[in-house]
Amino acid sequence: MLVMSIILADFGLFSAMQPLQHVLRAQGSLRQGTLASVSWLLLRNCRAHSGLPSTACPSPERQEDGVPKDFSSRLATGPTFQHFLRSASTPQEKPSSPEVEDPPPYLTVDELLGRQRKVYLETYGCQMNVNDTEIAWSILQKSGYLRTSNLQEADVILLVTCSIREKAEQTIWNRLHQLKALKTKRSHSRVPLRIGILGCMAERLKEEILNREKMVDLLAGPDAYRDLPRLLALAESGQQAANVLLSLDETYADVMPVQTSRSATSAFVSIMRGCDNMCSYCIVPFTRGRERSRPVASILEEVRKLSGQGLKEVTLLGQNVNSFRDNSEVQFNNAVPTSLSRGFTTNYKTKQGGLRFAHLLDQVSRVDPEMRIRFTSPHPKDFPDEVLQLIHERDNICKQIHLPAQSGSSRVLEAMHRGYSREAYVELIHHIRESIPGVSLSSDFIAGFCGETEEDHLQTVSLLREVQYNMGFLFAYSMRQMSQICNKNSL
Question: Pairing state of beta strands 292-293 and 272-273?
C-alpha cells in the first residue's frame, strides 16, 4: 500500500487519491490485479501532463474487435520510458554563447555566467604563469566575462602567483595590501569588487590566505582553472571559495589559450605540467603536482592555429619540458626504456614507453618551417642524442639550450638530489657543443644552499668560468616549508 501511494504521489495524484481498493474497483474489478490498475493511472497521468496524443498512451479499456485486450498485450503496445519524461522528444539545446558547464545542484546556469563583468588579471613569476593566465582568461571569456586593463573599472581582480621563493610571495602580500583600499571603496557599491589568488601561492598556503586576508574571495590552484566560473559565482553570494585540488591528468589540452597581446609575434605553448624530480630545494612537485603530458595531437593543433595567426615563434613550456611523455594512446605504451644523458640518474623509478620529447619536437618543427621553436625549462638528465641531433638538423629550432646546473659542487648537487655530479654535467656541456656547433647556453644557480661552504661556492664560480655561459640566472637560496627539509648538519 505504501509503495502504491508513493508512485501515485510522484505523478501528482496524491491529493485526489482515494483509498486504493476504491480506486481499483473503479476499474470494474480487482481481477486484473493492482499492477494493471496502477499502470492505467500512470498512463492517464502521462496523457494529462505530457501533451502527447492519446494514441501514445493507450487506455486499458480500449477494445479491439470488441474484445478487451489482456494486460500483457496492452503493456507490449504501451508507452516507453521516454513517454514519462517531460520534453524527452524535444531536448533543449545548450546556448552556444556564452558556454557554461552543467551547474552543480546549488547553482543555476545563469549564476555561472559572467554577465559581462570585467576581469583584471595580473601575472607574477615564470613563463608557465603567463600561459596559465591565458588559460584562465580563455575559460572566463567563454563564460561571458570581459577583460579590462583598467584596474579601477574591474569587477574581478585575479592575481596569478608564484611561490618558488619567499620574495615572490611577499610581493603578493604587498599587492593585496595595496588593493585593500580599492576593495573597501567598492564594498557598498552595486557590484562589489571580488579578488582572487590563482596559481602556486594559492596551492601552497591554501586557507592561510583566506584567514590572513579576509578581503580575498577565492583561491584556485594550478589545476582548478576550469572551476573559476563556479568559484566566482560562490564569491558573488558573499562566500569565500577555494579549489586547490591537484590533478593526475589535468593538462588543459582542450583549452585554447587566449593571447594577452594582439600584437604579439610569439607565444607560449604548455606541453606538460608538474614535476617528478623532487629536488630537495624545490616546491614545484607540491604546488603543481605530478608530471603529466598533453597529447601530441592537441599540441600540434595549437601550434597550427598560432601559425595561422601569423605568429613567428613558439616556446614549448613545462616544469621539466624535455621529460615529455605522451601515453594518451594504447599504442604509445611500449616497453622502450627512457634514454638519459650519460652519467645522469633519476630520483624515481625509470619510466617506459610513450611518445618522447624528440618525437614532439620533430613534429612541431614541421608545422611551419618559418616559425622558430624554443623550449624551457629542461632538466640536464633528459638530453639524449636524438634531441641534440634534431636541434642541430632543423633550421627553425633555435640553437639555444637552457641547462640549469644549480651548483658547481658535486657535494651540494648530491644534497640537492639533482641526479648528477659536476663531472657528468661538464661532460654533457662538451657533448652538446660538439653536437650543436655555436650553441648558446644559459643556466640557473642557487647560492647559499643549506650547508654550502666557501669551497662549494668557489666551485660554482669556477664552473661559470669554465663553461662560459651566454646567460646566467643566479638566486639566493630561499627555504620553502613544503620542500624536503634540508638539515644543515647533514652535509
Answer: antiparallel
pLDDT value at residue 189:
75
Pull the grid cell for residue 242: 577555494
Cell numbers that stand for 457 in this block: 661556492
Nearest to 444 by CA among 422, 411, 469, 419: 469
Q: Is 435 helix (H, G, I), strand (E, B) or coil?
A: helix
The DSSP code sequence of 10-74 is HTT-GGGPPPHHHHHHTTT-STTHHHHHHHHHHHHHHHHHH---GGGS--TT-EETTEEPPHHHH
> One-letter amino acid identity for 82?
Q
pLDDT score recorded for residue 68: 52
Residues 478/167, Cβ–Cβ less than 8 Å: yes
Q: What is the pLDDT of residues 410-431, one digit of tens each?
A: 999 999 999 999 999 999 999 9
**Other CB atoms within 10 Å distance of the CB of residue 169:** 21
Structural contact between residues 405 and 475, judged by C-beta atoms closer than 8 angstroms = no
Find the largest Cα–Cα distance for the chain. Answer: 108
pTM of structure: 0.76
Determine the 3-state secondary structure of 442 from DSSP: strand
Amino acid (one-letter) located at 224: A
Residue 114 has a pLDDT of 82
Q: Over the chain, what is the mean pLDDT?
A: 82
Parallel, antiparallel or unpaired: strands 355-356 and 325-326:
antiparallel
Grid coordinates representing 140? Answer: 572566463
pLDDT (0 to 100) of residue 339: 81
Cell digits of residue 484: 624536503
Low-confidence ranges of the chain (pLDDT < 50): 1-64, 66, 86-96, 485-491
Given a contact cutoff of 8 angstroms between Cβ atoms, the answer to whether 429 and 471 are in contact is: no
Buried b (16+ CB within 10 A) or exposed e, 373-406: bbbbbbbbbbbbeebbebbeebeebbebbbbbbb
**Contact 197/172 with Cβ under 8 angstroms?**
yes
Interior angle at CA 467, CA 466 and CA 469, nearest 5: 130
> Which residues, 6 or more positions from 356, have their beta carbon under 8 angstroms from its beta carbon?
324, 325, 338
